[in-house]
Amino acid sequence: MSYMKDIAPLVDAKADQFCSISDKVWEYAESRFQEFKSCREEADYMESQGFKVTRGIGGEDTAFVCEYGSGKPVVAILGEFDALSGLSQEADNPVHTPIVPGGDGHGCGHNLLGGASLAAAVAVKDLMDQGKMTGTIRYYGCPAEENAGGKAFLVREGCFKDVDIAITWHPGFMNNVDTGGSLANFRVFFTFHGLSSHAAGAPHLGRSALDAVELMDVGVNYMREHMIDEARIHYAIINAGGTAPNVVQSEAQVLYAIRAPKVTQVKELFERVCDCARGAALMTQTKVDIRQVSAYSDLVCCDVIRDKLAEHLDEVIPIDYTEEELAYAARFRDAITDLDKSNLKAIAKKIAGKDAAKVLEQPIWNFVVKTDMGPSKGSTDVGDVSWVVPTAQAHIATLAAGTPGHAWQVVAQGKGSVAHKGMLAAAKVMAATACDFLSDMELVKAAKENWLEKLDGEEYPNPLPKDLKPEIW
Q: What's the pTM?
């Protein structure tokens, strides 16, 4: 039995409200741990819908949980609402046109992510009010997914300890379900302290912190040859020590992202990167402070939940797009770079083989991708939740084909009707899946058994430093 016929009308009945919330969050465009307006917008709405709302959970001012119903099972739907820095962009404009140069923008579609997850929870609650469902439904408003890994702090503080099932989704340009895997990820600041001096008059008296940063980066770049192929290490020099070349820089700072398929692998790479930093400090007679500010665990996908998401995804795809919406998507497909177009061609060949050309003609990929796309090369703090609760996530198309993530093109499409239709489809898929588990404790049991089998005796690695608190950096 599918609950889609019950859920879909409930989502559609309040579609204007859900789209309005998503659009407002798009406009607020608040980055990690600063999502005060976005948090209030969603939490206030959930209170108006009869949910019990607890704000400021897990030591995070902008995290909250909304609960309706009682007893077991407890099904959680995860939402996000943080934006990315530097991606301000006019809505519906396929030409790069920032609203505020250097301002923030929803370059990963989290306004839609939170909007759909919230809508799913409300639809399940409305079905409960009709007497067709029991148990407990929760919506978790999770801040700071980008860069800070907000959910890892919530997991550490026990915010999911009584949850039986966790469901989420992510916007993109394909419709599919995760088969599991994402890269675990540490974010670490390395700050070097040296001695300033006149670079021409007394260079021998100076000890350059910038030299130390550069030597560290060289060391890490040589290290790349001697690490597993699946690992990724990226860095950005945050503080180069000033703008005067005739002064030896007394302080410099670099931020590293260290990724690998497993947290244990990231921990090993982290220690090696730290050794590069210590070696650079020794070579330059400087000192280095090492501060880890976030950690993401790899994603453990529960096959039982995933299969239910896949069933309901087939019920909502294809979406009924208008000719105007297809033309809108075509403008954005044509706005991506040649490199992105080349990448899109490779993806189309992987999923469609000899029919790739037909797929590439479609400005929106309005079909369910059945091909296993393999583990994600990105990172998500949903991974941390998946280590303590059986979890799975879907991907729903809200963007023109080939739109790259973390780009201004995502921001530009974030308020369009194509995005709204994808968001509402995602809400229906998650709500119907939640109902499957709320109505069947045997299914909940099967999900837990599958999850434990996936863990294979491993326990949550809790990669956050014990003394680290959620912070704006």
A: 0.95
